[in-house]
Fold this protein.
Amino acid sequence: MADGPVLAQLHFGREDAERDVTEGLLLRGGFLPNAAYRGALSGRKMLIIGRKGSGKSAICMQLMAAGDSGGHGGGKVLVTPDEAAGEEIRRFELQGLPGDSAKALIWRYVFAVHAARYLVDHAKGAHDGGHKADSVKALGRFLKQNGEAAGGNGRLVERLAQGARGLQTSLSLEAFGVKAAVDLAQSPSEGARAARQLEVVERGVVRAFADLGCDGVVHAPLLLMVDQLEQVWSAEPDSNAMVIGMLLAAMHAASLYGRSVRFLLFLRADIYDSLSFGEGDKFHGDELRISWTEQALRDLALARARASVGAELSEELLWKELFPETVGGEETASHLFRRCLPRPRDAIQFLNLCQEKAWLDHQRERITEADVEQAGRQFSEWKLKDLASEYLVAHPFLRNLFPLFQNSGYVVTRAALSRRFEAAVETLHHDFPAYAHALTLSGVIDVLYGVGFLGVRRGNDVVFAGDHGLPVQPYEAEFQVHPCFRAALGATTAFDLRRYEPRLADARIASGSLRPGAPGSSSLNRDDRLLMQLARSCHSILAQVGRAVALTRDIRDEITFQVDRVLDEVNRVPPGAATSVGVDVDDYLLTTAHYFTGLAAELRHCGLDEATGIGEVAGRMEEEARRLRRTAGGSYGSSGESGGP
């Protein structure tokens, strides 16, 4: 390991793959080859789909690396349109063709030109005398005549603009023996003429691949990748047409060039899922969606930690020495990865933040539980802001939905959310009139589930988008805010239940200044009997909660926590000591009965399905509250009612 404190050297890498590659961590072992990478490398998948920060660009950067570093060993071309290039594609139109088809032609042109540039350069170095082949010479002349010469430094937007003009008017095709003005004059429309010109170019590329024997057998095929389209996407029809056109062009080119060229398209999941076009079903076999489990994130964390401090770093040293073994009674790695969305970028940010809190802020040589908790609060605030930014284009109203969940329990029912939404819907429709059709209760639930903010209760589990492909069903009525966002929202308990406030004098109990009953006395006075009844009522309620197995564990735990607070206080009073504590036991029971009645009302009003057993729990609370009132009313053991609160 490096000299100096290990924690000072510990770093989990950058949030973006480009800087990770520049600084070398990704290539020193910080990259974890997952199923998506293996699928991309094998050539069996063409579409790599994932959320922002899920590792799409990391796969792309690794494939761009040298073959002996785990990358692709053949020729590689990476297309990453900037805003100017994206605007050029979005504005490209051809008379006689719909928008998708027109944009497919400009993408096919981009792919053909990149393949031609590769072939001209490749023939010089990899094939003895290959550059003398007529087909290769023809490609060289075509590129030169159309300003696309191999080795040129023209920006993508400039080449796109030139290619677009050529397709809309006429390309110089003399290199292939075609005089466009004469041979294509009979084309019935601008779109048909452009398609015929492009076919000439593509046939020239296919011929050169065949003449050189570049069929993916002698050497690896050309790998042509497109990444970061989200930088130029705007959820407008022409942006969708740009993406659809790219998909159509890649499928056409993959079929045309066969094993000579492989295509990899990296797309953000929300963009791909928003597309609707007739041939969309043809791409299912090419899709590979990136998913991350907790174990995969653990493996990634260890790989990146080793890349920064040394390969000898063990998992035990990382999670039991550098990090605290537990946080809040929960194993630390589980605590961390449950509180971030399942993607590398979030995990990297959270882990680095823990290190910074310990080392940079306090110069500690190990991370403490307090460091993790402090980092968790800041990380939660970051992620809430980032979620709104991530979906700003598709759901600009998202940030305005967060107040519906502030300072309340993280478990929310459809009924409770309906009441909150009704109070806010008028303002939402006023502020976002173009989205009024989506700003309904069911529409809001679908959006919040789709972006990963809410999970839905199914059986005894809570599932989030990505864990399960099924959307929220109309009959599903219980949801949970993702742990990632709870701290930022102040939603740190399952239910916003009224807390039980202790009534006994803790200081006097702790000091031992009590006067218990006479030693050896076996008789219980009335105060003791009342307190015993209160304890029995608590146990009865807790037993009913335990039988409500259909309740989500978080809700059971929250109810249990509040009732346990009552029971703990009762159990701290030794026999005969109630008077010494200075508590009127009758008033104490009546107040507790009133608390149980209020708690039962909250549970009945929360909107949970009766099938969860919540009604039986509320009923038992009400029954025990009545029993306590009768007892405190002076008729211990009778059936009389008391008029207590």
